[in-house]
Write a structure and sequence with these properties.
Length: 969
């Protein structure tokens, strides 16, 4: 919510007309760093649509939805015009409350200002005000909260009469920060008023800072003038805000149980004030849902409560002085219970205990949602503060971020901000809103189908297809329908469902899954755009670098790759879809650069380095010239590499190093061959399992693997067995929740828990690779034509897991006739876990090969999440500790006559290629687009030089030192 501070107010302005006043307001927002200059046009466009005059000499100018792309940060500037300005609708304006809003925050301002519209004399006072504080006081209205909790109670006080109890209650309110000394003095002057049943009341409005209620009781039973004194209420009154506190006192008196309050502890006394009787049973439960009791879990709670057959009431344990019916959805939602807060349930009569147990168990289990345990030491409620505007990036200085897709780009920027939507929160006809929503979802689905057909690159189409699945999720639609029944508009209901699901995704411990929240929001914005008829601004016709907070698959599918020279995002990591898609399309990309990149002005020049992971705004002529030379050299090398892509990969002196391709889909094998790949060094077979609603059968798997083998035409295929787990779950293979899925049940560990799945995959691979008859000789059989198959096991920690998997493979080799399977098969392991590298000598004696997954090996060795927005730059595979593990692996393998490949990002790093060759690596497996360049890089070095570079790298202490030393060479 927007708040008003004295620094936001500018006094004594002059303007000849409303346009001049609006120009001053726009300039004030720009100087404060809130907007770009283009926002001024949005202010004028809004006035052309309708006047923003509010009343009582106040106007609230704000931009249109289209102009929100110019908003850098939400904020407000207030301009006072003592002489007044005639607005274009004929009204006289003395104050402009000018808003830079990234969504519909202007509605918050409107609600805050409604209290001044009917007050007489406000216009004159605004015109005559000579201080910012006076204007802030006239316009602002603080949110009033009341206090009645354990800290406002004063129980068992050693008092001799009701006046001392009244003063004790006032002193307690002062200690709680609710009142000042004036209040205590005022109470001392007043005699408590008798309410009956031994209760008394004293109140005052003097010195009240927060409306509050205290109850003071004596340590012994008191009587005064023949009347019992059970307790004295001390009320800090303020306007109408304390009305609810008075109602609680009256409700207590209505029960006739006031005399029973003496001697009660704070928790029980608060329960009585909340309307719970002495006969009521109570139980507490903590809310574990990521987003508290929003509509879906609240509905589940209400259903459980109604099923108990007796009345159950619920309140917040901390400060919730009013219990409500647990059978009322509206009242339960209005509790506003957040994650971590405790609920107090109460019920009376036969079956109360079992009913409370049932409802508390339901809360503990998540009320139909997946929940995580609550650790109070790690989950403190954040204090919301206004963040300062991000400072613009300095000109001609490198700004580091996360390298996501290699390449170099020099072009003007186009800053694409997340679209914002204006829509009403409430609607009167749920049925009509449901029809609107269903139609919008249908239109969104049709749009996605069209984009899938037009998408360039398999990854784009695959992710967009996943978006189609999301759009058809019945749980999303059901969550939206619940909101519709509560009176929400179609837009508000849909976005609440999307945000709830996205925030739950972000709560997951695994970074890879948490980043998929961006996909949910991408789907949500598509439907919201249909409902609101909002379209994205058109990018420029000239080449540009796209700058945005994050980019979804829908955005990428719309990109004209002939114009987009590079991609820069404020959010995201190396594994976010923005990074994956940029690599798929061959667009240089830098991600996770922070909000400061969104301050870049449209059209300003930028150098983007997707290999070093940095950007340089407004480069100097000298720096630009250097970058242009690098770019020209890169293009020359790419052209030469493409021409030579089918040559056998060798170093300059003839040393053979195979260059293969990493694939996420068998359909891309033919493209990899066309780019010069000498095989597939990593086929991620989980794509096949993720693409099906249930486990793919033997025939389905055979067909998929055969597609890749056919395209390879005798080149080797290294297929990794199913690598899923808590971090990459399958809907038909549930995995228990884990605190850290990356260190849990995944890869070969998970596969061995269901050996039949692994056996079917082994069988399918062996049969798919069976030999084919020689051309023109159908009777020749398969002899000599078996396709080379290399099966690789992921996440192996030691030889025991390898042996368990090998036993299954050996049995299948015995069972399946040779004519029906390949005879050219090897079984190896991925070196991802440091223990596997350290134990390489024991493994090398039994495996057929090793393939080093440098991405995971680096993050496990350095204990750095390679997608971490702050630490990822330090997760460098050229760290000497990682290189030492690779050296140990190669040494152990070569001692046994086995080969070693590298299939991580390091294999395509131009600086790292000679080092890996020098360490003795036999195969480099990279993305298909990188194959020609890696072959070209190999041809530039000889083996002896590569060995010297490897020795130099191993002698360094840090990855930075490694890169510095290699650059000098």
């Amino acid at each position: 919510m927007l708040t008003l501070r004295q620094d936001d107010i500018l006094l004594d302005r002059r303007a000849d007309d409303w346009r001049m006043a609006l120009d001053q307001a726009a300039e004030a927002l720009h100087e404060a760093g809130l907007v770009e200059r283009g926002y001024r046009d949005g202010l004028l466009d809004r006035e052309a649509q309708s006047s923003t005059f509010l009343g009582n000499a106040i106007a609230i100018p704000h931009g249109t939805p289209d102009s929100r792309r110019h908003v850098r940060r939400t904020g407000v500037r207030v301009l006072q015009f003592p002489a007044g300005v005639e607005w274009h609708d004929g009204n006289r304006v003395h104050v402009l409350v000018t808003i830079a809003a990234q969504s519909d925050e202007h509605l918050d301002i409107l609600r805050q200002l409604t209290h001044v519209l009917d007050r007489e004399g406000v216009a004159e006072r605004l015109a005559a005000a000579d201080s910012c504080g006076e204007i802030a006081g006239l316009l602002s209205r603080a949110v009033v909260e009341v206090r009645l909790d354990a800290d406002t109670l004063c129980l068992g006080f050693p008092a001799r009469d009701r006046q001392e109890l009244a003063l004790a209650g006032a002193a307690r309110l002062r200690q709680a920060g609710c009142v000042g000394s004036d209040f205590v003095a005022s109470v001392a002057e007043r005699a408590p008023l008798g309410l009956g049943q031994g209760l008394w009341l004293v109140s005052s409005e003097r010195g009240v800072e927060v409306p509050a209620l205290s109850l003071a009781t004596a340590d012994t039973r008191l009587e005064e003038a023949g009347e019992p004194v059970t307790g004295v209420f001390c009320l800090a009154a303020q306007g109408d805000a304390h009305r609810g506190l008075l109602e609680r006192i009256l409700a207590l008196l209505d029960t006739g149980s006031a005399r029973e309050l003496h001697g009660l502890d704070a928790e029980t006394l608060l329960a009585r004030l909340a309307g719970e009787s002495a006969a009521a049973r109570t139980r507490q439960a903590r809310v574990l849902n990521a987003h508290g009791l929003h509509a879906r879990p609240a509905k589940q709670l209400v259903q459980v409560a109604r099923a108990q057959g007796l009345a159950i009431r619920v309140r917040l344990a901390d400060g919730g002085f009013d219990a409500v019916s647990a059978s009322s959805l509206t009242k339960v939602i209005n509790l506003g219970a957040r994650r971590g807060q405790r609920l107090v349930f109460s019920a009376e009569g036969e079956g109360a205990e079992s009913a409370l147990e049932a409802i508390c168990n339901a809360v503990a289990e998540g009320l139909g949602e997946q929940v995580l345990p609550f650790d109070e030491s790690r989950e403190q409620t954040a204090v919301v503060v206004d963040e300062p505007a991000p400072e613009p990036l300095p000109a001609d200085r490198p700004h580091p971020a996360v390298a996501a897709s290699p390449g170099l780009a020099i072009a003007p920027v186009f800053v694409l901000r997340t679209p914002h939507f204006d829509y009403p929160q409430r609607a009167e006809d749920p049925a009509a809103e449901a029809r609107r929503l269903e139609q919008a979802i249908h239109e969104g689905s049709e749009q996605l189908e069209a984009l899938v057909r037009e998408a360039r690159g398999g990854e784009v189409a695959q992710i967009l297809s996943m978006h189609e699945e999301m759009l058809g999720d019945p749980e999303l639609l059901e969550a939206a329908r619940e909101q519709l029944q509560e009176g929400s508009s179609a837009e508000a209901a849909w976005w609440e469902a999307i945000e709830t699901a996205a925030r739950a995704q972000e709560m997951l411990a695994d970074r890879l899954l948490a980043e998929r929240a961006a996909d949910l929001r991408d789907v949500g914005r598509r439907v919201l755009g249909v409902l609101c008829r909002v379209e994205l601004p058109e990018p420029p016709a000239h080449p540009y670098i796209l700058v945005t907070e994050d980019v979804g698959p829908s955005d990428v599918a719309r990109l004209d790759t002939s114009r987009v020279r590079g991609l820069l995002t404020a959010r995201g990591g190396a594994t976010s879809h923005s990074a994956i898609l940029a690599r798929a399309l061959g667009i240089p990309a830098v991600v996770g650069a922070g909000s400061r990149v969104l301050t870049l002005e449209d059209g300003s020049e930028l150098i983007l380095d997707g290999e070093r992971g940095r950007v340089i705004p407004a480069p100097s002529p000298e720096r630009r010239e250097t970058a242009e030379r690098r770019l020209a050299e890169r293009r020359r090398r790419e052209a030469e590499a493409w021409e030579a892509r089918f040559q056998e990969a060798r170093t300059r002196d003839g040393h053979r190093v195979e260059v293969a391709a990493n694939l996420g889909n068998t359909a891309h094998a033919a493209d990899a061959v066309e780019r010069g790949a000498e095989g597939v060094g990593l086929l991620r077979t989980e794509f096949l399992f993720m693409a099906h609603a249930q486990e793919p059968d033997l025939d389905t798997q055979i067909a998929e693997y055969r597609e890749a083998l056919d395209a390879l035409n005798g080149r080797p295929l290294v297929a990794r067995t199913l690598d899923v787990g808590g971090d990459k779950p399958l809907p038909y293979w549930p995995v228990p929740k884990e605190d850290n899925p990356f260190l849990g049940l995944r890869g070969i560990r998970l596969a061995l828990t269901r050996p039949k799945v692994l056996e079917t995959q082994f069988r399918a691979m062996l049969m798919a690779a069976a030999g084919v008859p020689a051309a023109g000789d159908p009777a020749a059989g398969a002899a000599g034509r078996d396709r080379p198959l290399r099966i690789m096991l992921p996440m192996v920690k030691d030889v025991s897991e390898f042996r368990a998997a090998k036993a299954i493979l050996d049995r299948l080799l015995e069972e399946i006739p040779e004519a029906e399977r390949t005879t050219d098969v090897q079984l190896g392991v991925m070196i991802e876990v440091p223990s596997c590298a350290l134990l390489a000598p024991t493994l090398a004696a039994e495996v057929d090969f090793f393939s080093v997954g440098t991405n995971d090996l680096t993050q496990y060795t350095l204990a750095i999440d390679r997608g971490h927005p702050e630490l990822s730059a330090q997760a460098d595979g050229l760290h000497p500790a990682v290189l030492k593990l690779i050296e140990m692996t190669v040494s152990a393998a070569h001692a046994q006559g086995k080969w070693v490949g590298v299939c991580g990002e390091l294999a395509s790093d131009a600086v790292a290629v000679p080092v890996l060759v020098g360490l003795g690596v036999d195969e480099l497996s990279v993305s298909a687009r990188q194959v020609p360049l890696v072959k070209a890089r190999l041809a530039e070095v000889d083996l002896e030089e590569a060995r010297r570079q490897a020795g130099l790298a191993l002698a360094q202490a840090t990855s930075e030192a490694v890169r510095d030393a290699l650059e000098v060479r």
